[in-house]
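@channel anyone free to eyeball this complex?
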Amino acid sequence: MKRVLTFVLLVALAGASQVLAQRRDTDAQETLIRNATVLTVSHGTLENADVLLRGGKIAAIGQNLKAASNARVIDATGKFVMPGIVDCHSHSMLDAVNELTLSVTSMVRTRDVLNPTDENIYRELAGGVTTANLLHGSGNAIGGLNTVVKFKYGRPVEEFIFPGAPPGIKFALGENPKRSNFVIPTQPRRYPATRMGVVEVIREAFTRARDYKATWDEYNAASKRGEKNLIPPRRDLQLEPLVEVLEGKRFVHAHSYRADEIVALINLADEFGFKVRTFQHVLEGYKVAREIARHGAGASTFSDWWGYKIEAYDATPYNAAVLYRAGVLVSLNSDSDELARRLNIEAAKVMKYGDVPEEEALRMITLNPARQLGIDSRVGSIDVGKDADLGIWSGHPLSTLSRVETMLIDGEIFFDRRQDLARRPQLEAERKQLEQAEPNRVPAPGQPSATPRRPAQTEDDGGNHR
Amino acid sequence: MSKPGKFSDRGTRRRGDTETRRHAGGLKSLPFIIALCLLASLNIAAQTSATAQQGVLAPQGTYVIRNARVVTVSGPEIENGTVVVRGGKIEAVGANVAAPAGAEEINAQGLTVYPGMIDLGTSIGLVEISSGAPGGVDASEVGDINPNAQAITAVNPHSAYVNVTRVNGVTSVATLPLGGLIAGQAAFINLDGTTADEMAVVPRSALVINYPRVSTTSFDALFNPQERNVNEAVTTRDRQLEQVRKVLRDAEAYGRAQDAYARDPRLPRPEQDIVLASLVPYVRGERPVFFRANREDEMRGAVRFAEELRLKPVILGGGEAWKIAAFLREKNVPVILTGILDLPPREDDPYDTNYAAAARLQQAGVRFCISTGSAGQFVRNLPLYAGMAAAFDLPRAEAVKAVTLYPAEIMGVAASLGSIEPGKTANLVVADGDLLDARTHVRYLFIAGRRLPLTSRHTELYEQFKDRR
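replying in thread with the prediction:
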């Protein structure tokens, strides 16, 4: 009887795990990438090298590596392997970016609005990106909480979340939080409207957070002493993340442009005893590289964006080089679904503007952002034991003439150009079929369409889709 | 990194010598001469560095660029060649070319000479800071019909974008008005000059028409998308097109009336109208009309419209041009392709739709060139747009042509620009690597035979702060 029960249980378990097993089979499978030029990013470039991936990790790097007989073997002769690109500033996957109502929105989470079917994920994968720091927008002095993800396109959203990535929060300085360039109709003018006000908003929030923390510390101490009939303080979801910042448990990623606002935030952080983990954009960082280095903040910048607003007029493409030489940890980010598809070229630019060495240029889109996000023990370079997140490129990834062939995350293929090309006729046929379906038919030129191509508006929402 | 200081020094010495000679004859006291020389050189030094920044035209020198790989673009590459520049022109190019006496020698060992790049889709000099500083934005006039708005009258030769762009090897651009239906007239300029007239290659080079789009989505004051009935949207498009058609027809009639009056002054004197007058060369097909159009139906519409009105059309944008390549080729309508780095227009488009668009046009035999379509900030990256097209199957030599000779042809200036040939204007870029590679440094730059400093607002800010520790 007991045996039968065990058998039944086993069958049930096997059945349940079959779905998982199907999805996971590549995990256990080995992959051997053969005879590539490997840009490890951490320890130089290896010619004619093999990379062995096992269990989602990089198992070995070297020459003439042996793999299991059932291993997937990718001949990368003449090709380049580099770590998956880490984008330290992205808004991909976010169905909402800016909670524009308040100046302090530390209670909102990007985690709640992730769209795993965003087609830009796939496009960015096809440009070599495997990891992204999804940040709240820059509309508020203190914005919402971030999410670090791996671009496992096609998977449920839970599988995107980067396990164990330290949590972070978005801050924003300058024109955006003070709303220099836009008004929101129906909303009254919001405080702050100056850079002075931006600093005060952050100071006020941290003053409250410090009090809140003291209240909890007192309560916890009293509770620990065994005092009875204590009433716990009321939870404050706006202040909790700021307490984590004060405790060094949550990274501050501060959108910034001008030198003055960068220094003002450094001074404020010093006043409250917290660290700014990264200055984002930090276009005038080159003017105050010394102060940024001394504070220990990282800089995550654009390679060459400039001039599109007043606070970007003193931007120079030499920013990354100056910050790097001042000892600041520098990364290059996209802040754009479009630009994220070609961060390799953004890295190449810093070799032109300021003569950053090649390996450092590559680090600025791999290891450096991984360090800034506190995930460098897992990703950012090709080292044994790290996650098998890497890309196979047709040529040197810093050349404009190269393109991505294959992208792997945790040892599984998430993009492959050949597969992509092979799938196109089928998708094209499917599209044609859909276009010919009655509701989608385009009216003949000059002919009015009998029916609107989209469902008619209902009266109840006034067509606003709110 | 370029070494701007080096150039300034050289320039100073050269000019200083002339000054010295001019003054030395009538003066006897040596200390006085020395003092004067010092003063002069100080003064000139200040002038020269100002020259670099304020776009004061330098003299057209005589130069011989030796030991270079020369990518002529129009002819075969020359592995170890010489280019002679004199009087603003390319005087000679070849493997064995004698240098004229007194030419300044440039040893370009390990370097490559390319023709200056050309971007036909910019608004350089019309837009300084696009957001937050409307005082420096002059691209979009009020109203829909502004053919008499001429970029050449408003282009700012001292815009920071001029130097920032040219130091990367983009030496000429079309600068385009942007707003309304007929946005205005583009200027085709060299990126060098104190005045717009000095920059002008073709001051009124094209009429820019924003071909009206069937738009079923608009946004209300709260940024909420508003759906519009497709019939209503089509009607709006047709009405806008009719507006353009009417003013073009009026311009034809206006031109005929003016001509008739010129031939026979006994006729009633026709009224003068600056709007219609500005359109006459375009309705007579004497100059090109840039139709900003990206969707298939817009481009077909633009070509049909141009046929109907006997215009000389060029498609500006051309996002979906690859879909109607056969049609465009048959009609011999060129495309200024601006969207190579744009996201694909539809979510189910292949990821490389726009990267590969140039290769598809080329394969289909469509006349095209590559443009950034950027008002200013990305124009310096023009070679990287071509590079991306090359990564997605546009042959490399074609990619170089697409930013040099092809735009010159489309603009009708190929007799003087776009390739390295004797007699052409000496717009030259001497680089230490592949022009299309982001890592490549420009080492020497010539526009109209003037050797230009490799300085810009960006190198100046860099020099100012790079050593602050």
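from a first look: Residues 1-54 of chain B have pLDDT under 50 and may be disordered.
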